[in-house]
Description:
Blueprint: E1 2-4, E2 14-19, H1 31-46, E3 51-56, E4 91-98, H2 102-112, E5 120-127, E6 139-143, E7 150-155, H3 157-160, E8 164-169
Parallel strand pairs: 2-3, 2-4, 4-5, 5-6
Antiparallel strand pairs: 1-2, 1-3, 7-8
Amino acid sequence: MLSLAAFDFDLPAGLIAQHPPRNRSDARLLHVPLAERLRALIGEFAGATPAIGSVDIALYRDDVGVGGGRRGVVPVVGETVLDFDIEKHSVVLVDDVLYTGRTIRAAIDAVFDYGRPPRVELAVLVDRGHRELPIRPDYVGRNLPTNRGERITIHLAELDGSDQVLLQEST
Length: 171
């Protein structure tokens, strides 16, 4: 699921949080609190807050289903909430960690099933590199080059009691 926000002026119309989580046992939705933080900051500086929503990407992922190197997993579909007209506003997709770009590709496909926004931008907390698709964030909290064998874990105060970005070796 991704988060979105909507604006009536020359700022993004929607912050969209994307999901599902990469690890099915980890049901925390990091993207929504990140989008809510961005929404509050934009409201503080611009004097108006964007709408916010979320879009489930379970059916748009290219690594689940059957055939062609996909995991034989039936996707668990979550809720999509878009309480604004995305065709009339620009959209900012919000993600915690940008890696291969495949999650964002799925989110873009999901958003376009609800309409065609005039502009789609991407905001990420951490860009770790290793892109497999031509996806580039417009807004980056931190570039953190990694090895493919490493993992980045994000903890947010809203969910974990503190803000942390952890770089871990894969086990």
